[in-house]
Input
Amino acid sequence: MKRREFLKSSVVAGTAGVLLDACAPPGSEQIIPLLIPEEQFIPGVEEFHATTCFECSGGCGLLARKIDGRLVKVEGNPTHPISQGGSCARGQALPQAMYHPDRLRSPLVREGARGDGHWTEVSWDDALDRLAAELAPLRADGAGLAFLTGQLRGHRRELVRRFAAAFGGARHWVHEPFGDATVRRAHELVAGIDAFPAHDLEHANYVVTFGAALVEASRSPVRFGRGLGHLRRGRPGQRGKLVAIGPHLSVTAAHADEWLPARPGTDAMLALSLAHVLIRDDRYDRAFVDERTEGFGAFRDRVLAAFAPETVAATTGVSADQIERVAREMAQHGPTIAIAGDAAVTGPSGLATAVAVTHLNALMGAFGRKGGIYFDLVPPFTPYPALEEPSELEEPRPLADVLADASVGARALLVAGTNPFFTLPAASGVADLFSNIPFVASFGSFADETSREADLILPEPTAFERFDDDVPAPGVGTSMASLSGPVFVRPLHDTRAMPDVLLQVGQRLGDDMAAALPWESYETALRVAWSGLHDAQRGSIVETSADRFWRSALESGGWWDDSTAADVEFVTPGGRYRFEVGPLLAGAGAVAEITAERPFFLHVYPSLAFGDGRSAHLPFLQELADPMTGTRWGSVVEVSVAAAEQYGIANGDPVAVGSAQGELVARARVVPGLRPEVVAMAAGQGHTDYGRYATDRGANPLALLAPPDPADGSELALVGTAVSIRKVTDVVAVLRTGSRSIDV
Output
């Protein structure tokens, strides 16, 4: 061999070795993707694909950037009405989910006892046959099957509901710790509309939040953040005001013009006291109240009799002068919007808070006005054909109700988009519920605490590898829908979307199920539904054929119609807004109590980076420092300056927080922005099984909360649990919690 040929072969062999060692998984026998590409691409040329973020409920439109066939970055879709080119940290971290080393790669069947974590890989044909074999005997009694999900939207929800109905009345259970069920229930009571409204923040002048973490984590941080930014600086010479109410100086409160540190659980009382001043001084929108509402007399009498500022000041911790001033400013500097959310709408007073805040908006005449509140118009989707023999199908039932029901009787359970073993305390009974169900199948892209208790795990592709759609809530007051298609020719691993699995199982369960679910794929089902938007011949996409419309919608990331006039038509028997007083009588005075043994309230709030914990597996977000506490890769417990002095606690000291449910240990962060009787913790950390980046990081404050009470109408009481704190001197106990990873 000549020297030149030897050197050539050496370089090629050496390069191949580097590529195999650095890029390919163990056992690979070919160089991927440069020599044998999985897709046709031009090296070095970037591609952009419209997609949708499903990491939270915001439904933002994204642009996924690919180079050399690999997803490298995402940005906000500039044409999407929600994102308008922006995205939050959780959206930016999504490429790490795509290439995560702990992703589920194929169906898994449990080996051994539940919870042991021993699994065997099987083919999809085997997994679908096993699932169909477990479900087929239950067709005679459809109620023997239950489907537990998070708060589904778009046609995923429709497919789950249709599958359950066609099955013969299978039950649908819902668990979403920071969901909007209480706010939607309040609007259904007063307006007849079961929906989370859109807020015209861009044209408002005054915004009051009751516990809602608008800037960091509540519902749609990109949408709310942009709206509040415009309220502040988007109108030259005009600057709106933001007032934040809550016991904890959140990111939203830190960005507000004024923070009112109200005592936990007194938000309803404070909202009604503001209403008292508006009614007493005749500063409410009399035209709206007279022409478009009913029941105002009983509401007025109740508010004037029981919620004077001087009466509620001591209980709420907000002075009468502050209440009087804020109420005057609300009336003087309108349009005004009041928004309730997160911990404030949970627990015994949660519904009362949501209803009281909605009544404040009615007093301000905010419904249907510029700078006020709208309900988004439903996009004109083509409805799916009616079932030949529709079953009596109950409305989705909160998991809290199910856990309190001793006669559940389910024999098979499908789980998707929720992790109750992490987000509920042990005393909730969720473990007993699962143990009494003979067969459990779990859908998801990652194994977590709940899927560990399953018998069969069915891995889903990420949002970049599947078809999906969404109707964001809150929206922007117009008719719109987001659409997402695969960014790649095929999924990275052997995964299938949950709606596709339901369609395939339906084909195996009999002719009637196959007729009810006739589509060969979820993409086909979506195309049928979206054909209605083409038929409307209006909005952002108008094409000559349904096929051209579908391609354009995928390229754009959705469809929206700015020409539809946003308005509010109340869907009550009288067509008027109802000033309901029942929830106020039951919950406005339901204030939690502390004891000498447990002299603090625990306030749990959603994490900016992790939400309720579902994003904690992404290392980018673990590395992201919390803007208020500076915490990374762990948890802190926030204590007030007064409590720190009383207990001799300094920044970084290990502190044990105990409730009737148990105890956890985390490093202390002494903060001035906290009521003295409150300790606060962000949710999201403390996983016991959620991949290498989240497992055994920090502590889970949700485990300390009292079990959910079905009477509250919320999944968890995120504020009001009585706890004790103590400084920990046992270093071994501290290290056992993973607190050594905290950056303090």
